[in-house]
Design goal:
Length: about 240
């Protein structure tokens, strides 16, 4: 009769542990899942939709209310995020009612990644990335600004340092469309150079603080999980 040596047993145990950890993290498919909703790594990994086109969306938890789960229990994360009774709390609850997968913390994490992608895509003149992340109106405005810049043979040299703060300041349902507005404070090194390479705006050596108020929206009646930027405002 043959026996396993210590090394063989060790690797068998390790394999079992890894299997259960992966199952806990990734879950098991039931056939009812929505399409993957983790687009903000798209700038690096380039995931594609069913038509072979790259997707860029805000990543949110794919959670549905469990059978028998009380309504108050569904709002635990929201109540921890915004004080119950406030307009912000009411708006977030309304979005949760329309989209059970919505979680404010997960939304903020995704919006922060979207913010960096949009800022850098604008600086690079990357219309393809912007089209996937912006509403038609905002996209047209960004593209017009890029075209104007290119017409003067100007280029933006930009380096994204990071986001200091990203807070949801308002949330509401407009018909079947969810709208979430964030105040974002970021740090950016940016300079605009003319055709000759001379700096005409900004400073390529200085980190500047930028304050923006951005609104993202999504049609909760659609199976499309994408949130898109629908309004921008720079805070003084």
């Amino acid at each position: 009769m043959e026996f396993f040596d210590f090394g063989t047993i060790f690797f068998l145990i390790a394999a079992v542990v890894i299997f259960f950890q992966l199952r806990n993290v990734l879950g098991r498919r039931t056939g009812n899942e929505r399409p993957p909703f983790d687009p903000y790594t798209a700038a690096r990994s380039k995931p594609q939709d069913a038509n072979g086109k790259p997707e860029n969306v805000v990543s949110l938890p794919q959670r549905k209310r469990a059978p028998g789960e009380a309504a108050d229990e569904a709002y635990v994360a929201i109540d921890a995020f915004a004080k119950p009774g406030t307009e912000l709390n009411k708006g977030l609850r309304a979005i949760k009612d329309a989209d059970a997968s919505f979680e404010p913390k997960g939304f903020v994490d995704g919006a922060k990644m979207a913010y960096e992608m949009i800022v850098m895509a604008y600086a690079d003149g990357d219309r393809k990335t912007l089209k996937n992340l912006l509403s038609r109106e905002v996209f047209d405005g960004f593209v017009a600004a890029i075209a104007d810049r290119e017409g003067r043979s100007e280029k933006i040299q930009s380096s994204f340092v990071g986001i200091d703060k990203a807070d949801i300041v308002s949330a509401e349902m407009k018909g079947g469309e969810a709208h979430v507005t964030l105040r974002i404070v970021s740090e950016l090194i940016s300079a605009t150079r003319d055709k000759a390479g001379e700096v005409i705006d900004g400073d390529p050596e200085t980190v500047a603080e930028v304050k923006d108020v951005w609104t993202f929206a999504r049609d909760t009646r659609s199976r499309d999980p994408n949130w898109k930027l629908v309004a921008t405002e720079e805070e003084d």
